[in-house]
Design brief:
The chain is 85% helix and 0% strand. It contains 4 helices and no strands.
């Protein structure tokens, strides 16, 4: 869930850059300002990266819903579900090692 929040934050920051680039003072000075060209270049790169992240997020959440439904845990958040899987695997590993020692 933290990753989802980070992607949303990134999206808001990209939107802020876009809004700044569309303000009148930026548009009138962008040709003579060397930082303006770098900002536009950064914006386009970051926007493309954000679109990729957004698509990956949607795909991951779709896959998560399938897996969580399969295990009957569709009400859990992704981090809660994965914590349960991790705890189970750790307990299984400990039980297996204990059985081997006996």
């Amino acid at each position: 869930e933290n990753l989802v929040d980070e992607i949303s934050k990134f999206k808001k920051e990209i939107k802020f850059i876009y809004e700044e680039m569309n303000k009148p003072y930026y548009k009138t000075n962008s040709k003579s300002d060397p930082c303006g060209a770098k900002l536009e270049q950064f914006y386009h790169t970051a926007y493309n990266d954000m679109e990729v992240l957004e698509n990956n997020k949607k795909e991951a959440l779709t896959l998560y819903k399938e897996v969580s439904t399969t295990f009957g845990e569709e009400d859990l958040k992704p981090d809660e579900f994965l914590t349960q899987i991790h705890q189970f695997s750790q307990a299984f590993k400990e039980a297996h090692n204990e059985n081997i020692r006996k």
